[in-house]
Amino acid sequence: MTTEITAPAISLATLLDQDPAFRLHEGGKLETRPSVPVRDAADLSLAYTPGVARVCTAIAERPELADDYTWRSNVVAVVTDGTAVLGLGDIGPTAAMPVMEGKSLLFKQFGGVDSVPICLDCTDVDELVETIARMAPSFGGINLEDISAPRCFEVERRLKERLGIPVFHDDQHGTAIVVLAALRNAARLTGRRLWDLRAVVAGAGASGLAVTSMLLKAGISEVIVSDSKGVIHQGRGDLNTYKALIATCTNQSGHTGTTEEAMAGADVFIGLSGSTISERAIASMAPGSIVFALSNPEPEIHPGIALEHAAIVATGRSDFPNQINNVLAFPGVFRGALSARAVEITENMKMAAAHALSGVIEEELSAERIIPEPFDPRVVPAVAAAVADQARRDGVARLRGL
Fold first, then answer.
1. φ and ψ at 168, to 5 degrees?
2. How far is it, in rounded angstroms, from Cα 108 to Cα 29?
3. How far are the Cα atoms of 5, 74, 297, 308, 322 from residue 319, in angstroms, in the given order?
4. What are phi and psi of 161, to 5 degrees?
């Protein structure tokens, strides 16, 4: 027996009239405000002409001064093409704006980082890369958001090669950081280490492949990845470049069947696919299993049902314990990278973020608390400090100390 988490259908007119979400979003969620006063002619002459000309001339002579004398070093572009928005799919750039505004709101609320939501009316990889690169002089970092796979991998790769500022696809790396942090604590709580675990990852899109890559780097024993056609293995002839690459370093046991078949005896299930998983499949996992049913808005299985068989269950929702939420990662990651004026976000910086995040509640672990809550004030400082320190260790920081 399964229980659906659904809401009754409501007309758009009723939603516009009664839903508090629409009232909160009315007029948008962001505004710009000056950070210096302009009270009189003297202030005006400094903030604008003629004083501003002296600053412009200095930056033209030494471009790095823009990080000290403009807002650039503390502002991120939150960029999407609207092709993979939350669980809504390809809804286009205009409809994606509320999510990008929300992301900017969270950057400021949690990390003290200014950001600008940008929704681009193009989906071609070349056009996306060229457009974002041409905007880059205005920003200290680029946060890519809700761009569908596999295009998102190419967009990020090319921008990282071209730009000397952090480029971070949050759907990939933010998710992976929080998943790894939560899994570290879940393993610790159940008396195991990462290299003792065998995991099944359902979903081979941006988040699924990034999570898999990070788990492998962290030393997990084995990862089996599946997509809508079943387990990914080297014998499949229908794999794109990225799936083919992941096939070479996963599934050492040689599974070729369905996701649920691969789950038999597994220690960990991580759902990132929008599919459903049966209670029978959860029951077939190893004793003390860990289930991360992360699809939104509907988890792959109701957490109450999963808990009948699993030791620890997490979802992507705020109305159940153990929410795997990217807001635990990206504000601190960018705060640390911007503070160090890093030229990129390295793999080591992501691993440092995951380690710091898991350590925030290391002494407070329970089956219903394997990850901090988003409003825990310790999260961003811990993650930011770890990321900035690792940037210096990796030699990508332009500021050697804070």
1. -140, 120
2. 12
3. 11, 33, 11, 18, 9
4. -70, -30
Residue type, 157: R
CA distance 313 to 305: 10
Instruction: Please list, in sequence order, all residues whose beta carbon lies within 8 angstroms of the beta carbon of residue 259, skipping any fewer than 6 positions away.
Output: 200, 202, 226, 230, 231, 275, 277, 281
Instruction: Walk across the sheet containing 114-119 and list its strands.
Output: 114-119, 75-80, 141-144, 167-169
The string of pLDDT tens digits covering residues 337-374 is: 999 999 999 999 999 999 999 999 999 999 999 999 99
Query: Which tokens in the block code for residue 54?
Result: 């002296």
Q: Which of 215, 246, 217, 219 is nearest to 231 (CA)?
A: 246
- Known catalytic residues are 48, 103
Encoded tokens for 358: 């898991």
The pLDDT, as a whole number, for residue 296 is 84
Please tell me whether residue 141 adopts helix, strand or coil conformation: strand
284-302 confidence digits (pLDDT tens): 999 999 999 999 889 999 9
Tokens of 164: 């000397």
d(CA 76, CA 330): 11
Tell me the pTM.
0.92
Contacts of 377 (CB under 8 A, 6+ apart): none
Work out whether strand 222-227 and strand 230-231 pair parallel, antiparallel, or are unpaired. Answer: antiparallel
